[in-house]
Amino acid sequence: MAIAYYHDRVCLNVLGGSVENAKELYEAAEGHVEVGVLSANYPDVESAVEDMKRYMEVLEGNLSVGLGGGNPKPEEVRNLMKIVKELV
After folding, report:
1. How many CA atoms lie within 13 A of 1 on its CB side?
2. pLDDT tens, 35-44?
3. Facing residues of 43 across strands?
């Protein structure tokens, strides 16, 4: 899925507060948005993957996954990569 740029120039990137909120953001932006979710908000890789798959469904694949929490540690980056590998 390619990023849906508005007029081939701009794509919004916003944080979603929930799956329903992400869906509302996606609809309000007419699909020209990448909704972000932070891996730091999940206790483990498994629950992150499970929840993010729901986001992927309502966002037609337009999900941005970030670390969150500032100052990434190597283990957090490894976990982020595990999540992303499960989503693609």
Report:
1. 16
2. 999 999 999 9
3. none
In the three-class reduction of DSSP (H, G, I as helix; E, B as strand; rest coil), residue 80 is classed as helix
pTM of the predicted structure, to 2 decimals: 0.88
Task: Report which of residues 2 and 87 the model is more confident about.
Answer: 87
**84 vs 23: CA distance, rounded Å:** 20
CA distance 7 to 14: 19
According to DSSP, residue 12 is labeled E
Would you tell me how many other CB atoms lie within 10 Å of the CB of residue 24?
15
pLDDT, tens digit (0-9, with 9 covering 90-100), for 45-71: 999 999 999 999 999 999 999 998 887
DSSP calls for 25-66: HHHHTTT-EEEEEEGGGSSSHHHHHHHHHHHHHHTTT-EEEE
Q: Coil, strand or helix: which one is 13?
A: strand
